[in-house]
């Protein structure tokens, strides 16, 4: 009989669960959106067309989620809003910029809006109160850190719905369940 090791998650999850300050409520409201490639959860398309192929993938969801995140920043100037792509260059930058330019006219971003591809995900999650992610372990990291975790879901048109996985105690109970991103973010911003 030999020793057997079973791995049940990313090793960095251990760092989150061993942090005694993980449940600290952040003083300043911050919404963190983890950007995703068009081929997220589509390995065959990624293999044939790359991360941002010329056709296919989650184009409408990508555009809608980024536009909605930009609108939240515009409508809630007291709330910091961060988009965190894996990298902000090349096609990824092009697609993000194209998506948000319809919200931020003439390329002028509000002071509370930031695209950050250099700060660690762990630090950003720790500073956030609400985390939005799609097909990413960052959603689990948010839950382990007792953050509000949100999954965007494209419903058609240019409208995002989301599934709220978990709420921190500061969020209004009447916003539980499946709501549009603006409602969940407004509930979060209004409660902090």
How would you portray this structure in words?
- With 192 residues, the chain is an alpha/beta fold.
- The chain has seven helices and seven strands; from the N terminus they run αβααβαβαβαβββα.
- It has helices spanning 12-17, 43-49, 59-75, 90-100, 121-127, 138-144, 181-191, and strands at 30-34, 80-84, 113-115, 130-132, 148-156, 159-166, 178-180.
- The chain has a seven-stranded mixed β-sheet, sandwiched between helices.
- Strand 5 (148-156) and strand 6 form a beta hairpin.
- Helix 3 (59-75) packs across helix 4 (90-100) and helix 3 runs parallel beside helix 7.
- It is globular.
- The relative contact order is 0.18.
Main β-sheet, spatial strand arrangement: 3-2-1-4-5-6-7
| Helix segment tally | 7
Radius of gyration: 17 Å
Q: Termini distance?
A: 54 Å
What's the number of extended β-strand segments?
Answer: 7
Poorly predicted regions: 161-182
Shape annotation: globular
Elements, N to C (H/E): HEHHEHEHEHEEEH
Q: State the secondary-structure class.
A: alpha/beta
Mean pLDDT: 76
Determine the fraction of residues in helical runs and give it as a percent range.
25-40%
What is the strand content? 15-25%
Q: What profile does the largest beta sheet have?
A: 7 strands, mixed
